[in-house]
Structure formats: C-alpha cells, structure tokens
Specification:
The radius of gyration is 23 Å and the shape is globular. It is 32% helix and 26% strand. The strands form two sheets. It has a 15-stranded mixed beta sheet that branches. The longest helix is centred in the N-terminal third of the chain and has 36 residues, at 2-37. A hairpin with a 5-residue loop joins strand 17 (356-367) and strand 18. It has a domain at 55-299: Metal-dependent hydrolases (TIM Barrel, Alpha-Beta Barrel), CATH 3.20.20.140. The chain is an alpha+beta fold. InterPro entries: PHP_domain (IPR052018), Pol/His_phosphatase_N (IPR003141), Pol/histidinol_Pase-like (IPR016195).
C-alpha cells in the first residue's frame, strides 16, 4: 500500500511540475512582449487642430442583461472614460430592452442581437416592437421581423469560424455587415495562440489598448464576402466592438469607434435621449458613419469627395478624392482599394473603372507585436455604388 502511495505522490509531483513549468513558460512568453509594448506610442497619426468634433460611439455591446460582464451603468462609465458619446447595446435576444437614455453623459441606445438558425443578427433602430421573436428562429423570419418593425438588420460576425451566417437568401436581405469585428479578431487569436494570443496578452499587461490592437489582424474572408453581397445593393459597413468586458470595455472603446460626420449629426447630441438616438441611428443606417480604429488616430477631417454623399453613388470614370487628416509621415499611411476602382499615382485619388461597388479604406503602419510594425486598417467608410456612365456625361 505504501509502495503504491509513493508512486502516486511521484506521479502527482511530476504533473504539478509540468503544469508549473507550462505556466512559467506562458508567463515568460507574455513577458517577452510586455517590455516592448510599454514603449509603443499611440496615436500613430496625431490629431489636426481646428477640426469639428465628430460624435463617436460603440456599436454591438453586451451587458449583464445577457452575457456581458458589466451592467449598463458600468458600460456607460467605461464609454465616458474612453471619450465616447453613445453606445448601441445589443444583448442577446433582449426583445424588450429599455428606451434610450442618458447615463453618466453617455447615450445608451437599445438594440438586440438575435440568435437565429443561421447565425447572429444585430437589429437596431426599430420604430415598432419586434413581433413573434424567439431564439433560434429561421433567419429569414428574423430579418423580416426586423424590417416589419422598421429596423435595420446587420449580419453579426458573418464569416466567423465559430458562428458564421449560413443562410444565403437572408444574407442578401440584410442591409448591414460587420466588416471588422473585435470578437472575430479575438477568436482568430485563440486559434493562433503563439503568433497572436500570447503577444496580445503580453502587450495588454503593459498597455491594454495596444493589446487590443495586436489582435487586429484582418483576414481576406470578411472583405471578400462583403464585396460579394454588395454587388446587387451596397451594404453598410460596421466595425463591431462585440464587447463583453474581456478585454475591458474601456480598452476596446479606446481602440475603435463608429464616427458620425458633423454635417450629418452635429455634436453635442440633443439632450432629449429619444431625439438623440434617432439622429445616431439615422446616420448609422444611412452609411454616412465612418468606422475608425481610433487608437491609430482620430478621423476628424476625413472626407471622400467626387460622389453623391447622401446616396453614396458615383459613375464610371469619376474620380474619388480621399482627404486624410493629420498625416505626419505619408510613408506610414496608404489608401487601399477593392472592387470597381483603382488607386491613382498620387496615392489618394481613386478612378472608378467599372460598374459595381468600390471599397476604399485608409490603412496605417502601426506598432507591431514586437519592435516592428504592421499595416492595420484605420478609417473605414461604407462602400460606394458605381453606376454606368450614362448618356451625355
């Protein structure tokens, strides 16, 4: 009996040492990235003085009303600390959320993330109650219910490996598309622990915002699917925080936001919560909002001229002029173009070469996982529909 107990103690001792060794190895790897992270500098692009203030906020945020770690009050406080004006709350299957309200100086706008048979659907801006809603309802029924309530349907993390959108017909019916999703970035890092997750954890220990930005590693899949669905009718592009409180709400809010141009929504927002929510949802639904990874720089002053701004349309042969704010080093900023356009030699004009849709983004050479740098998206407007040239033009 004693001999058996000794064998067990030895085995347990080896197991404990192995676990302890693994923990120390992980901590050592994380620490390897912590020191250089403390030396990173943000923002990469410095703000330009004298630009009108854009209203800015978070889209797709969860609270303790579903699976978030923070109450609405705690979310509002984190948003205020991060300098945001509004938060679109999207708790899972919360079909009767409270009305819009100001909390700690932050506008909380009710919305919902619906669990369907084909994936998750974010719905916001409803003017009527959602009728007949239930969990895991058919995707097409969910989209129709949102439209019947005069709301907007947005495909949540539609190309995510964990929970993609799988119904083709309703994918075309939804007006919005989460082009960049913080949750998708996190899940991508989970599947690449050595190259993405551990560097992000190490960076987070020194600078939480940098830790979040290390996760920003866009894959081609979401962009390709976005362009495919936009061929028939342009989708509105969203950057989704999909924040649950880990990483912290504030660090995610400091890293990216949806911005509303001042010619569409003047800042500050109205004191009446319902009126303010209507203005925000109008701008988000119309595609006039701009997503920005604000850790890299504020987008105030960004414009894209040469199109019908309200309809987001231009014609074959037109040229879009991209105005980028506050560039200290042009070599660290570039314009990316996909679809029916090509970048001009000046690096900021986009010639529209054919019918369809063109997607234009501004990217920045940002601090990398170690001492180097990586190209990351900075300013992301919704795409532009390119129409035929037309007679007499």
């Amino acid at each position: 009996m004693k001999q058996g107990s000794g064998w067990l103690r030895k085995a347990m001792g080896k197991g404990v040492r192995a676990v302890l060794g693994l923990v120390l190895l992980v901590l050592g790897i994380c620490g390897f990235f912590t020191v250089p992270a403390s030396l990173t500098e943000y923002p990469v692009v410095l703000p330009k003085e004298g630009q009108p203030r854009w209203a800015r906020g978070a889209f797709h945020v969860h609270t303790t009303r579903s699976d978030g770690h923070g109450s609405p009050l705690e979310v509002a406080r984190a948003a205020k600390a991060a300098g945001l004006d509004f938060v679109v709350l999207t708790d899972h299957n919360d079909f009767a959320p409270p009305p819009p309200t100001w909390v700690e100086g932050v506008l909380l706008i009710p919305a919902v993330e619906i669990s369907t048979s084909a994936g998750h659907l974010v719905a916001f801006g409803m003017y009527q109650p959602l009728e007949g809603m239930k969990r895991w309802m058919p995707a097409s029924d969910a989209v129709r219910a949102v439209h019947a309530a005069q709301g907007m349907a947005v495909l949540a993390h539609p190309v995510q490996r964990h929970n993609p959108w799988t119904d083709e017909a309703s994918a075309h019916e939804a007006e919005g598309f989460e082009l960049y999703s913080a949750d998708t970035f996190f899940r991508h890092a989970m599947s690449h622990p050595m190259s993405r997750l551990l560097p992000a954890v190490g960076a987070y220990l020194a600078k939480p915002m940098h830790g979040v930005m290390v996760l920003v590693a866009p894959e081609p899949g979401p962009g390709e699917r976005f362009m495919e669905l936009s061929r028939e009718e342009s989708k509105v592009a969203f950057c989704a925080h999909d924040a649950h409180g880990l990483p912290s709400y504030e660090s995610v809010f400091r890293s990216l936001a949806m911005y509303l141009p001042p010619d569409i929504v003047a800042w500050p927002l109205p004191e009446d919560a319902k009126a303010a929510a209507n203005l925000v949802t109008y701008a988000l639904r119309g595609g006039t909002s701009v997503c920005a990874f604000r850790a890299l720089g504020e987008p105030e002053g960004f414009t894209m001229e040469g199109m019908d701004a309200e309809r987001r349309e231009a014609r074959v042969g037109d040229v879009l002029e991209v105005h980028i704010p506050g560039i200290p080093d042009p070599e660290r900023v570039r314009v990316e173009v996909w679809g029916a356009g090509r970048l001009g030699q000046d690096g900021t004009s986009v010639e529209l070469t054919g019918e369809g849709v063109v997607r234009v983004e501004v990217w920045v050479q940002a601090p990398g996982r170690f001492f180097g740098s990586e190209w990351r998206p900075w300013i992301v407007p919704s795409p532009v529909r390119v129409l035929p040239r037309g007679p007499g033009i």
